Amino acid sequence: MATFLYKLGRLAFRRRHFVALVWVALLTLAGVGAASAPPAGNTSFSVPGTEAQKAFDLLEQRYPGMSADGATARVVFKAPDGEKMTDKANKATVRKTVKELQSGSEVASVADPYAGHAVSKDGTIAYASVKYKVSGMELEDSARDALKDAGQDARQAGLTVEIGGDALTATPETGSSEVIGIAIAAVVLVITFGSLLAAGFPLLTAIIGVGIGVSTITALASALDLGSTTSTLASMIGLAVGIDYALFIVSRYRAELAEGREREEAVGRAVGTAGSAVVFAGLTVVIALVGLSVVNIPMLTKMGVAAAGTVAVAVLIALTLIPALLGYAGRRIKPAGEKSRLLGGGRTPKKPGRPNMGTRWASFVVRRPVAVLLLGVIGLGAAAIPAASLELGLPDDGSQPVSTTQRRAYDLLSEGFGPGFNGPLMVVIDAKDSDHPKTAFTKVGDEIKGLKDVVTVTPATPNKAGDTATITVVPDSKPSSTTTEDLVHAIRDKGADITSATDAKVLVTGSTAMNIDVSQKLNDALLPYLALVVGLAFLLLIVVFRSILVPLKAALGFLLSVMAALGAVVAVFQWGWLSDLMNVEETGPVMSMMPIFMVGVVFGLAMDYEVFLVTRMREAYVHGEKPGQAVVTGFRHGARVVTAAAVIMIAVFSGFIGSSESMVKMIGFGLAVAVFFDAFIVRMAIVPAVLALLGKRAWWLPRWLDRALPNVDVEGDGLRTDADRGPGPDQERELVSA
Asked: What is the pLDDT of residues 607-659, one digit of tens each?
């Protein structure tokens, strides 16, 4: 591996014009493809295997044109003080609004509040239900805009008008956050390298990689039903790893220059060593992202595969375009420890023998490994305690900020009709195999009326064939409560009894039931996903480090940091700790996707830091240093770079905390905290402490396994022999003595 990458790096350095032309051509081709491709709407959303999805599919068959899983909206009206919605003038205003709502091409139906008895008992609140032909994720922006504008005349007439429902669901805009993250990354890179030019390379190549990845996704979106949400994860992860990988290569290149090597040789060795770490770090990220397919939610699978493709592009760019750019830069990239004239510095290296901060910290950890290990484990363990109280759910309008129309509509409906009215359940009765369908319909309604937490049960509405019926159930509790979840399970339990008695199948669906099923599906998939991702990465790291204990330590440390991060998320978003500081207006269940999403993203980034830091230790150990000294050497060369990479990622993710969307805010906070815990506590403290305690045993591998594993030579030991065949005797003597 190291030998091949060494030759690839030197080739890219010498053929820099060709390499640069290829990447510019790929970027142009992807851009043209994205510009000429037909615009793609939002991807269709389905959750195979859940009861709620089965019910939606059944309704599509038995009620043609019903659009059972279509988006819904509720336009809520409230009369001014002293007036009622039943007053003549207010009635006329509402009916005018209803007429406006019916004009959209994607609108399936609009229910008049007065015809549908959708007026509160005190007459002050009414609502119009809007049903769309497509789901909320497929709804065009023009339809959302028309929905928002429909109530303007009613507002001017003095009515309070608010709009709720999944029809207003849209992908949050994150462009400003990414710009802030890039700006912070630029500052950190300049401080790390002491050079504007060297700092610019990781940013430039990361942007090129994300540009190619996102443009390709856009070009294929219509053909593959990728949708507009698919590129979100790809751009975020692509930017993160693109900066990291280029940072690793450029940093190693400057270190090789400081050893006195010629620039082409330094590029080759940088790509052969740090590039090997980049390849395997990239593989762990790809495994984590592609592994999201285990959840069996098509949208999540597409997002993972698309992001994995962007990561693969980032790896290829780091291995080829970075060496080419270093060739263009020439002597303007200074050796490590030498300041750049761009920052006004001299050319004098810093005093020899003066240890950097990474060396001093690693030396301290090697001297006090037990104390550092205990402090790190106890600290993360304490942070993980709240995770024991983790409650999962999907956000609804009740979790929106009070400044949004969705939240105000939610509160008005709760005020006028009760909290459960915001999350009605749809019970579908499939009586096709029943001898007495009408009896089954009646029995289901009667059984549900006898359950706790039920406020309203509508009469069964059969289809034309009379073999299927729907019943609407309004709970007494809000949609995200555990009481409502218990009611869904109670109805399904009753349905099993009814099926055995009447041969009629009972299914519970609707947005609330779908949220419950998705949460359960994600929760059930977490352990298999962890086993797959951690297991495959464990095997990969055995090949990289030729050790059993080092990969085991890496996996256990990752699990500890993720649990601590989940604990922090629970403390802030579920318990309300520091909620004012984080501007969390409404606490509640943690988003169902959060644990599995955090595992996938953070695992990939954590293994980046693990591979880069520990390969330097492995390299020093293979080249003859004692285990303790190898740890110090690894930190001397790698701590600064890993610290910079982690700070950049924390800054990028923290930019999302300011979002008004609770889901985006939670993801940003969780990922930022997870990277902090993993980079600075696990990789910078626990890892060197464990390696210091293990000594030579850290690098132990059974002989039979050693013979069976391929020798990928990540530490670049084979480069010494290749360098001996270099072009000059001076280089030969330097490589032999290195």
From this structure: 778 877 887 788 788 777 888 888 888 888 778 888 888 888 888 777 777 76
Tell the residue number behind the tokens 């391929």, with chain if given.
Answer: 710
In sequence order, what are the beta bridge partners of 111? 129
d(CA 536, CA 534): 6
Choose between 591 and 328: higher pLDDT.
Answer: 328
Could you tell me the two tokens for 536?
A: 């495959």
Under a CB-based contact definition with an 8 Å cutoff, are residues 290 and 304 in contact?
Answer: yes
Query: Whats the size of the chain, residue-wise?
Result: 738
Please give the average per-residue pLDDT across 701-721, as a whole number.
73
Q: How far apart, in whole angstroms, are the C-alpha atoms of residue 649 and residue 182? A: 10
- Alpha helix positions (H), 15-71: 16-36, 51-62
Burial of 699 (0-12, 13-18, 19+ CB in 10 A): buried
Of 300-304, 328-332, 395-399, 505-509, the range with the highest mean pLDDT is 505-509
- Domains, the chain, ranges and CATH? 1-36+175-347 (1.20.1640.10), 72-168 (3.30.70), 356-402+523-710 (1.20.1640.10), 403-515 (3.30.70.1150)
- Do 241 and 58 form a contact (C-beta atoms < 8 A)? no
Alpha-helical regions (H) of 225-262: 230-258
Q: State what percent of residues in the chain have pLDDT above 90.
A: 12
Asked whether the beta carbons of 297 and 521 are under 8 A apart, the reply is yes
CA 119 to CA 87: how far, in whole Å?
A: 12
Q: Is 315 left (phi over 0), alpha (psi -120 to 50) or beta?
A: alpha
Alpha carbon of residue 149 to chain centroid: 33
Q: Which of 491, 525, 523, 524 is nearest to 509 (CA)?
A: 491
Q: Is the pLDDT of residue 55 over 80?
A: yes
> What whole-number distance in Å separates Cα of residue 422 and Cα of residue 633?
60
How many CB atoms sit inside 10 A of residue 32's CB?
Answer: 12
Confidence bin at 718 (pLDDT 50/70/90): low
Q: Which token pair is 590?
A: 């943690």
Using a cut of 0.85, tell me whether the model's pTM lies above it: no
CA 627, 633, 638, 640 torsion-angle sign: positive
The residue written with tokens 């349905």 in the block is 495
pLDDT, tens digit (0-9, with 9 covering 90-100), for 268-278? 888 888 888 88
Distance CA 240, CA 11 (A): 27
Picking from 668, 548, 671, 675, the residue whose alpha carbon sits closest to that of residue 608 is 675
Handedness of CA 432, 436, 438, 440 (dihedral sign): negative
Q: Where are the beta strands (DSSP E) in 192-318?
A: none
The Cα-based distances of 129 to 98, 107, 110, 167 in angstroms read 9, 11, 6, 11
> Rounded to an integer, what distance in angstroms lies between the CA atom of residue 709 and that of residue 510?
52
